[in-house]
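Why show two proteins at once? Because comparison is the fastest way to build intuition. When a single record is shown, students tend to memorize it. When two are placed side by side, the eye starts asking what differs. So, the first record is below.
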Amino acid sequence: MTRSAPDLETLLAAAVTAVPGGVARPGQQRMATAVADAVANGEHLLVQAGTGTGKSLAYLVPALQVGGPVVVSTATLALQSQLVDHDLPRLCDAVEPLLGRRPTFAVLKGRHHYLCLAKLDSTGAEEPQQALFENAGAGGTTWLAEAGRLGKQIQRLRDWGLDTATGDRDELDPGVDDAAWRLVSMPARECVGAARCSFGLECFAEASRERARGADIVVTNHSLLAVDMLAGRHIIPPHKLLVVDEAHELADRVSSVAQAELAAEAVDRTARRARSLVEPEVFEALTEAADGLTVGLGETPAGRLVGELPPALHAACTMLDAAARAALESIGEVKPDDPDGVAKQPARAVLEELSTTAQRLVAAKDEDVAWVEKPERGGGGRRALVVAPLSVAGTLATHLYQERVVVATSATLTLGGSFDTIARSLGLFPPNAGGDGTSGDEDEPDDAGPQWSALDVGSPFDYPRQGILYVAAHLPRPRESGLPDATADELVRLVSALGGRTLGLFSSRRAAERAAEVLRKRTTLEILVQGEESLPLLVRRFRDDPQTCLLGVMSLWQGVDVPGDACQLVVIDRLPFPRPDEPLAAARSQAVDAAGGSGFAAVSVPIAAVRLAQGAGRLVRSAGDRGVVAVLDSRLHTARGYGNYLRRSLPPFWYTTDPEVVTGALSRLGGAP
């Protein structure tokens, strides 16, 4: 007798039951039904699912009913690990009796995440020392000891290479430095291909792709998804459904992948790599181009470049393009039987990228933004000439939605109460019809684009009862950088009322360090500051000691998950608008202004809304959490236009501007008599 296929409700119930403490959630059920309907109708879907909805199961369960491969893309390693190590194994155990088979899943990462046997085989004793020369800092007095340490890491990688079944760097414990890993891994653009490589049949990266091709569900990341789109979609296996989790991050990840740069150190490194493959005069031309780039970067202030490149940088890029093309001609094409192919292909790949980037910068197209990066005074950093696309909306509209249904989900997809802004950034909004009264992006397509619908399934949390949104409306409008005295006083008052348990999210490192200085001086609490120790260790100490505050900058705004009583106060020093010197944000804002819209409203405010929502979302992580989100920027209350928009982008906490009310609530939470 043929087994009848279980329906969605039955599968979801089994999956939820398998979760420790799992209970049916209306939002999760609505989302699962919407995903199934989207697949059936061939219509793309945006789903906002608040924290605690259980959105992973809400898309994984209907994915099992698609009848073909499904790809799930995440922005963070934390979510990828959660899916692969917990959610998917538990789901497969739960549904196997109902389906009559065990679903399969695989992780697909970029090629450089895997050990390259050809690179490992060709890595000699001189490579660790060479790697140090290529990555040397200002003081090079300890390079012999460092070379010895790298050599030991390479030997450990050789031993591991004999035992590992996957070659996945994430499975190497303890890990190795990036410098060591670069010596034994191969970026995709530098690979000669399995057919041309003597280790092709044993290649770990190829094996991972083969596993992905046979899996029901493939888990990947936004960066590889972007590379796949821009490379013609031949890396990720063909599939019917693509789920983009943490979808508010996708456009930025695509922009990063489409970004390119020129740095003198990279040109020098390329010249050394190609030295044995080209004539001496070609090598000299490459080194001269690196020198010219150094001079050009030295003469040009940091910041955005408008119009054509300054003469010195224009000349350097022209020299570099000519030298790179001469080197490519000298090396020649890599033939299938070329015994030097493993050495030639990486050199050719990097030279081609240098030439393409130099030509792109010289062309100075309107759809690109160029800028110079330099180290901050007194700090580390790099000198580079960078170019990135003004917008990726058109790229996404053209390449993301073809021949598959896309479900994009996140806890923060509605900004100001509308999906319009996120939809436009993902290439789903028609041009010149912005819901906020702004014109469309320059990169948007000319037609209405793919058909889509949107759904907000809410959150199971009772935000008005679990949290307070307090805005310090009595504070002066922030004007100076750092942490003003009045803001510091307010911070001390709030933290002292609770007695610790505070996550401080600051707009700059200077403000975070000033806050730490004040709190250490005026309280007896343990103050932890991002950068003083590794972030996992800081978070663990914050979680374990209630009389502790953890202070940091942007990466903490969405990278910390501390449910329970350990975090009952989230303090945000000021509204997280992009800085005026952020080249991409400034260029995009200017483009909207030039088209007759408001760049501030269309670019800066949505960026701040996403960041603010992510930061405020650190407070309530479970049904039992209680606490306060305190924003020490009066503009959130006094700016009627964007202030209301930003508040509508936050969870619906109970709202107050009364300092006495909030200190009373914090004192009760802290157990004060």
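Second record. Ask yourself what differs from the first in the token line.
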Amino acid sequence: MNREEMLGRIADSTQEWDFIVIGGGATGLGIAVEAASRGFRVVLLEQNDFAAGTSSRSTKLIHGGVRYLQQGNISLVLEALKERGILKRNAPHLVHDLPFIVPTYDWWEGPFYGIGLKLYDILAGKEGFGSSKILSQEETVKRIPTVETDGLRGGVIYYDGQFDDSRLAINLAQTAAEQGGTLINYMKVIKLLKQNDLICGVVAHDLENNQEYELKSRSVINATGVFSDSIRKLDEPMAPPIIQPSQGTHIVLDKSFLPGETAIMVPHTDDGRVLFAIPWHNRVIVGTTDTPVLNLLLEPLPMEQEIEFLLKHAAQYLTKDPNPNDVLSVFAGLRPLVSSVKNLETATISREHVISISRTGLITIAGGKWTTYRKMAEETIDQAIVVAQLEYQPSVSKTLQIHGYHNHADRFGKLEDYGSDAIEIQNLVKKEPHLGEPLHNDSIICAEVVWAVNNEMARTVEDFLARRRRILFLDARASLETAPAVAKLMATELKKGTKWQKSQIESFRKTANNYLIH
């Protein structure tokens, strides 16, 4: 994936695309893959970096949704479990089984959760990741040595999926590109073009080169998540809002708080929320909160009460009580919850997402979650084909291998998340041995920065440290220490000078500051 090449593809303003997709998160990228793999001409425009918003700030789970089971929403759980299985088959280098234990402290919890999770197994059927069972106190402690033992009766174990969200996003972008799609980051849509009161394209502003582009299209798809209403208002200034954003915050702790490879799931905290403590990249993620917010920020800020909630509840279930000094990183993300569909002209609605079509033809897909991104994309393109008056082409994404596909990626060690691309990174090191040198504590090597710039469209230090590699999310201080070396390597590849390096380091320092508890 090369940004200059992609810009060359949109330079001719007379050409007409089949679809323009606005938004480069999970949903938009899934739609780009869906459209390109069906043979349509598609261009995706993202105002920031791919997955810079909600899609890089998830709880890192590909799951059916045990909480929906509690609510009795069987159809939603069935759909998600099916999609979970498809994703594991198509991206085995990024999606892994993860055992979860629900620790039980009351006499009724073991049988209650045991029966519920057996139903979860049954719904998964042949797509199941493993069978649930009730554990004794001894078995629970053996699997989770740091679980709070005071009053512990046992636990229930079940299995779900885990992944690296922004790595999957980058691989989806690469997949779409391989299928003939055009994708450009740092390209902000500022206007919708209309002819005879029907949308026929967009005007986009390249934030890197300060240049405007006019793109014609048979259909425009709004997949901007929490920013959906702002695009809808470009179409219809008086359009009533449909997004009611909620903020979820996670804290990241050292592995010693939860050694081993088993996660903890608390289905019902004292205020009714679900809490997870999950091993991830040799750290522990504790989350998540659910706080209504009004301000939509590209870089949401964790609230003090959210951090207090997570620390307090982590202490209730772990023998080692974390305090603010133990937090390596804290990150917040906005959830694009759909609040109202009363005023939408056309809509297909599920509990999780909604597809609407305005009277001018703007297609908006809102809501949803990572697990069902592919299904949402399929439904969206099915609708968009009708709006664009194109000949129907069937979906092939159920069996389409995602870029990086590799069944035994663990053999690549620390390069595992790259899947088959790990071989290319190793080849870079063979050609230029100095690229094998570690950047910080042996966690990443120089070749990864070179690879990210030349093949994954990383444009800034933050792109690399936050999303191509996850150092900012895993250890904010370590990411600050690594930033100068990353800036230097990127400057060489992007042919930038020392002034660019300094501004990048300063910009990243401001961002990383939001991931630290002060």
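One difference worth noting in the second protein: Residues 476-494 form the longest helix (19 residues).
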